[in-house]
Amino acid sequence: MPTVIDPVCKMVVNPKTTKFKTEYYGRTYYFCCQECLDEFEKNPEKYLATSKTTTHSKRED
Ligand SMILES: [Zn+2]
Q1: Which of helix, strand or coil describes residue 29?
Q2: Could you tell me the distance, in angstroms and rounded to a whole number, from the CA of residue 45 to the centre of ligand 1?
Q3: pLDDT tens digits for range 2-59
Q4: What's the 51 CA to ligand 1 centre distance in angstroms?
Q5: How far is the centre of ligand 1, averaged over its atoms, from the C-alpha of 13 (Å)?
Q6: What's the pTM value of the predicted model, to 2 decimals?
Q7: Using H for helix, E for strand and C for coil, what is the string for the chain?
Q8: Interval between CA 40 and ligand 1 midpoint (Å)
């Protein structure tokens, strides 16, 4: 059974059992808890950017 990574805390999440999920640009993301879901929705780009190399130098911390 496929599992996914919670992009906020990097925990392994089972899409079949978690009820915390959101859609962003046509993809569904799963979370371990409401806090992670809220955090992602506040700043999705921050969490999605970690999966690929950042080549531009713009920082928005
Ligand atoms: Zn989490």
Answers
A1: strand
A2: 16
A3: 899 999 999 999 999 999 999 999 999 999 999 999 999 999 999 987 555 555 555 5
A4: 16
A5: 8
A6: 0.76
A7: CCCEECCCCCCEECCCCCCEEEEECCEEEEECCHHHHHHHHHCHHHHHHHHCCCCCCCCCC
A8: 10
